[in-house]
């Protein structure tokens, strides 16, 4: 069990960060480096500037629609916002930023097919705007269209060969495909183009971690730290290697440094919680894990370990919330449903508990683990469920 949690921590941390794919960007949305679309911008006009060809009446109508749309965005009503911005696009048909904004909102919903179509419309109107192309590549990548995403990044590089994010996108896809030689060539070339860029060293570290070449990974990560001593992610990446090696004192040392420079780093909070859990300090571990999921509610590995501690504390409602996150993110993991069943039973939701135990038993059987399946069914019998 101990190694499995470490592996999850690494996969959700340094290795995940290694396959860096630049994010979707709507028009003038703030630039981010984390995977996934950026948060909605505060100003409605980030979506569009009205075209000069509009009449005064049309201008007023579009401006009003933009204000209504922003209100929907602020309320996280992305479907409503999309409908309103589509009305604006029907009036202002030559405005590429409207279409890119619609693409951004579709990406926020996880509707990447529609996002791709919207970004293509924006590019057709303004093919020189790199933000539109990054939005397209991000949506293609998130939609599982790796060949198309790779082609889009390479189209960017054809005219902008020193574009860092496009190079990272190419390397990230190569790394995901286990094309280590190709990824190494891409990242080493990028290190020459941008010798002080922390993401490049993270990516190189991830590449070598995937190959279990920890010494080489440390060389690149420490080189990155010399240029970026206050980069929390690099410290977390170094800590990840020590976690894989079971060297908890060194991991903790690097995590403390990560938290010193970036106290809001959810991965650092999570991994510190894991280290303290391994060292038997469950109270401190609980505090770090709780902070990690508050900072990043989608940090599945942290929810998995936090759920275990919540069950021990008989805090069943919170355990249900954590294990639901795990089960949603890992629908083929029988342990997630088994533990969710335990938490639901403790919460007094017997029917839901039995349903999740049955799912766990089925998944254990499918995965060739008859002992796990029998354990789940024995618990169901103990609870009074007649098979």
Automatic annotation (TrEMBL):
The keyword Repeat applies. InterPro entries: CellSynth/LPSAsmb/PSIAsmb (IPR051012), TPR-like_helical_dom_sf (IPR011990), TPR_rpt (IPR019734). It comes from the Bacteria. Keywords: Repeat, TPR repeat. Signal peptide: none annotated. TPR repeats lie at residues 96-129, 198-231, 232-265, 266-299, 300-333. The keyword Repeat applies. Pfam families: TPR_11, TPR_19. This is Uncharacterized protein. It comes from Shackletoniella antarctica. The lineage of its organism: Bacteria, Bacillati, Cyanobacteriota, Cyanophyceae, Oculatellales.
